[in-house]
Amino acid sequence: MSPEPIRLASLGIGWWSDVLADAAGQSDQIKIVSCFTRSEEKRETFAKKYGCVAADSYEQILNDPAVEGIINTTPNDVHLETTRAAAEAGKPPFSRSRSPIPYLTPERFRGSAKKPTSSFR
Fold first, then answer.
1. pLDDT of 29-73, one tens digit each?
2. Pairwise CA distance, residues 53 & 34, whole Å
3. Domain limits at 18?
4. Phi, psi of 12 (to 5 degrees)
5. CA distance readout (Å), 81 to 54, 104, 112, 121
6. Are the beta carbons of 8 and 68 closer than 8 angstroms?
7. What DSSP designation does 77 have?
8. Quick one: which H or E segment has residue 97?
């Protein structure tokens, strides 16, 4: 019997979020359960395509007990804010940029998590 998949939300909808959601769909260990982006049309399209909930706000995702972690594909200039918010909510963030993010350093991120969180499998 395999363990239950980790339940993730996708934040920031664009081409890269689809690449990651497509990859997640090939695994029995990951389930995209929610998504949010500012564009209602984009989040509704993503939700329909991947069978998840289109959240009305990032705060809704952060407060949703069904969400265990965040896939953060937001633009680089908001990575720090959105990644820190995920950690503070106890939802481990996955954030990968195609370019370096000089302002998202371990020193700036350290201490932002309020409580210990489980790690991704």
1. 999 999 999 999 999 999 999 999 999 999 999 999 999 999 999
2. 4
3. 6-109
4. 90, 105
5. 21, 9, 11, 24
6. yes
7. G
8. none
Within a domain: residue 114? no
pLDDT in tens, 99-118: 444 444 444 444 444 444 44
Residue with more model confidence, 108 or 77? 77
For residue 79, tell me if it sits in a domain.
yes
Residues in the chain: 121
Taking only the tens place, the pLDDT of each residue in 50-61 is 999 999 999 999
* Total count of domains within the chain: 1
Residue 116 counted as domain residue: no
In-domain check, residue 121: no
By CB neighbour count within 10 A (0-12 exposed, 13-18 middle, 19+ buried), where does 43 fall? buried
How is residue 18 written in tokens?
Answer: 């689809």
CA triple 108-86-35, angle to 5 deg: 140
Q: Which stretches does DSSP call E strand in the chain?
A: 6-11, 30-36, 53-54, 69-72, 93-95
CATH of the domain at 35: 3.40.50.720
